[in-house]
Amino acid sequence: KLWPKTQAGPQQHSSTAIGLMGHGFGKKTKESVPDADSAKVANELLDKAKNRGFDDKVWEEIFMRLREVPAAIVRPKPRRFSLLHQAVYWGKCAAAETLLNEFGADLEETSDDKHASDAPGIADWRGHKDLAVRLRARLLPSPYARVQEDDAQGVKGREGSVRAWLGLRRVGEEMRWTLFAPALQAQIEDARGQGLSSMWLEAGMLNFEAMEEVAEDGTPNPIAYAQVLWEWDEGTGGKALPEWRPYPRDVQWQLEAALCAADASATVKVAVPGGVRTYEVDLVGLRQVAPQAFHFRRVRRCGAMLRDRFPASVRDVASGQWLDLASVPDYWQPVGDASLAAARRFDLPRDSPVFESICSWMNMTIKSGHNKAFGRVVGSGMATRGMEVVRVEVVHQPVLWRRYCSYKGKLKVQAETIRDHESTAYLRENPMAMPVCDWLDQDVCEAYFWHGSGKTKDGSVDVIETIVSMGHQQSDDNATMEVSDGLASRFAQPTSMFGAGVYLADLSSKANLYVPCPVCHQGAYFRDACTCSKAVVDAAEPYRMLLCRAVMGRVHVDRNYEEARYKGDFNPAKQLGVDSVMGEVDSSKLRFREYIVYNDSASYPEFIVHYRRRDKKL
Q1: Facing residues of 178 across strands?
Q2: Which alpha helices (DSSP H) does 81-170 contain, by range?
Q3: What is d(CA 445, CA 498) in angstroms, rounded to the nearest whole number?
Q4: 153: Cβ–Cβ under 8 A, 6 or more apart, which residues?
Q5: What is the pLDDT of residue 4?
Q6: What is the pairing mode between strands 543-551 and 446-452?
Q7: In the predicted model, what is the mean pLDDT of residues 291-306?
Q8: Which of 414, 425, 440, 570 has an alpha carbon 20 to 30 Å from 611's alpha carbon atom?
Q9: How many angstroms separate the Cα of 452 from the Cα of each of 335, 381, 605?
């Protein structure tokens, strides 16, 4: 193990993160009382430091004695200052580093006087500004959570795992724990593979025994490493079990650095037969996408546990803007930290304004003229003219919500482009059937849409449950709801009218055509007719439909349909230079509008609406 070599005794503290040892990271030592012998030595050393601490030789004498009596590092009563306080008083950076690194001095210990200053405060008071900055930097948390020394999260020794090296470095006016660049990571690993105890840098050196980066002027800063493993799924997806393969080590270092920097994504290059391929890895949704493709591959990360696994905001790499992932609507029940809360659902009160709005929206977006074979009222056989809402569930799924907020935030950066896009003016003059909602973001063309679904034909998979669990994912065909990792998919197949995407409706009556009978699971598009009696259906659970938020961004309004634009193994929106597609009504091809998004993070299934069909308007 590459821990610093120390000879300190039982009073030394050991602050740990996975592979991150011996540099404290600001962890406070346990309070202890020295015995009489060690207290006597401590007083002698404190007198030396107080009276002659300006002399480097005196500090060498102090360190030699501390190696003999390590418990003397503890300040005895009634002394007001510790050895560390004396070192920073005299501006002795190297002495302070030795006290911290080798002897476990407590950086947060305060002086026993009216000022109650810690070591950085004393350095400030004495005018040693650089030393104060360096000491405060030690109190900065590393990107990794503290765990037991031998806890490698199951990746140590696994094929493909890497050590990600990081150091405390100056970034602008601040000191921060920063992961080294992939090229330096590779040099470090090569040096360690050769058994070297140190290596030279362009400016300074790395000392692996002391776990320090030493600048040209001799100033040391701590370094550390974490064991991690980044993998991608080489399998076919769908119902197939994942086939995890490790990324090349340079890509793993790049992904780990981006994740620790709270980047929303990372663009990586991977060598493949015949050349190099570029991928974008979504670090919020953990999936890999190739340019112009709609397929994604799952990505997973194992190893050192991050201190903040679900940051409240992430950085959009393209713009540098920070994207809010934690804010939730005020009508959701309080959940504390929304990004950390567990997935949950709750019913909207029937007397709430939002419940009343959903009832109104559901009935005001019923139109006539749909396919007469589906969505009928059992018993009368008539078309559905009213929908009686009996229950509305709010879905709080943090994983889906973070993905949606990240996608929405990236489009928000392009708000001016979206406002100037021709589709924005077109939709203003030819609005959607769903009314504009004042809590949605019009700058990114955010709106509510209906999505009809239910259980599969045999009743074995509840697609609504799986959609609200992990969202829409690609499917092998338009009629079958595939299950991947236990999750249903609802992406249409590439041969569908507008290609592979999530199809949404601004008419509840259109979505109603895709909602099967809750008893026999028939009576919807791609199903047989429902033959259940009215009494049986009335006694069963109600029909269900999703009300989803969706961010449309720049919309391609298709008023002149051409099949070649959409059908194929590609992302039509990317090909068209937009974010989504709206199929406009065409008497020969489309009786009602279709809305399609081609990224499963572009929609969020916020409500499950339970309703009963009525043959009269409500």
Answers
A1: 167
A2: 83-89, 93-101, 119-125, 129-138
A3: 20
A4: 18, 147, 227, 302, 303, 304, 305
A5: 31
A6: antiparallel
A7: 80
A8: 440
A9: 28, 19, 11
- The yes-or-no verdict on residue 500 having pLDDT over 60 is yes
pTM of the model as a whole: 0.78
| Contact assessment for residue 387 and residue 612, using Cβ atoms and an 8 Å cutoff | yes
CB 608 within 8 A of CB 345: yes
> What is the rounded distance in angstroms from the CA atom of residue 80 to the CA atom of residue 85?
9
Phi and psi of 60, rounded to 5°?
-65, -40
The residue type of 535 is: A
From 150-154, 190-194, 396-400, the region with the lowest mean pLDDT: 150-154
Note the maximum CA span of the chain. Answer: 100
Distance between CA atoms of residues 534 and 615, nearest Å: 13
In angstroms, the CA 429 to CA 208 distance is 67
Q: What are phi and psi of 29, to 5 degrees?
A: -75, 155
DSSP-derived 3-state class of residue 7: coil
CA 191-192-193 angle, 5° bins: 90
Q: What is the mean pLDDT of the chain?
A: 85
> Which of 354, 336, 352 has the alpha carbon at shortest distance from 344?
336
Read off the pLDDT band of 3 (50, 70, 90): very low
Q: Determine the pLDDT at residue 177.
A: 87
What residue type is 342 in one-letter code? A
Residue positions counted in the chain = 618
pLDDT recorded at residue 137: 73
Distance CA 452, CA 467 (A): 11
Other C-beta atoms closer than 10 Å to the C-beta of 555 total 24
* 292 compared with 386, residue with greater pLDDT: 386
Extract the tokens encoding 606.
């916020």
289-308 as b/e: b if 16+ CB within 10 A: beeeebbbbbbebbbbebee
Q: What is the pLDDT of residues 207-265, one digit of tens each?
A: 998 888 988 888 788 888 888 999 999 887 655 678 999 999 999 999 999 999 999 99
Q: Which residues contact 349 (CB under 8 A, 6 or more apart)?
A: 355
Arithmetic mean of pLDDT, 538-548: 96
600 is written with which tokens?
A: 């499963």
